[in-house]
Amino acid sequence: MLRVFIGLVVPYFGVIGLLPFANSVTWTLWNIPFLYLWVFAWFFLTSACLAICWFCFDRHRADAA
Predict the structure, then answer these.
(1) Which of the residues 9, 17, 57, 62 could staple to 3 if both were Cys, CB 3.0 to 4.6 A apart?
(2) Based on the number of CB atoms within 10 Å of its own CB, is 49 exposed (0-12), middle (13-18) or buried (19 or more)?
(3) pLDDT of residue 12
(4) Rounded distance between C-alpha atoms, residue 15 and residue 32, angstroms
């Protein structure tokens, strides 16, 4: 259950749940709005969450085949 939380719930909450917060920020970096930076960052953060799930839970599982 913890791997489902890390792999699905954390990225979903980060992108969808915190979207109103990210939309209200007016800060920019190199003329790129914070909202775009937020969504782009979650591409990498989602990959990191999935990597954590694999390293912590699935790496040592026997293959089903």
Answers:
(1) 57
(2) buried
(3) 85
(4) 18
Structure tokens that stand for 41 in this block: 């960052």
Neighbours of 38 (CB within 10 A): 18
Q: What is the pLDDT of residues 8-40, one digit of tens each?
A: 778 888 888 888 888 888 888 899 898 888 889
Amino acid at 26: T
3-state secondary structure (DSSP) of residue 47 = helix
Is residue 63 within 8 A of residue 9, CB to CB? The reply is no
Among 65, 44, 55, 41, CA closest to 3 = 55
> How sure is the predictor about 64, in pLDDT bands with cuts at 50, 70 and 90?
very low
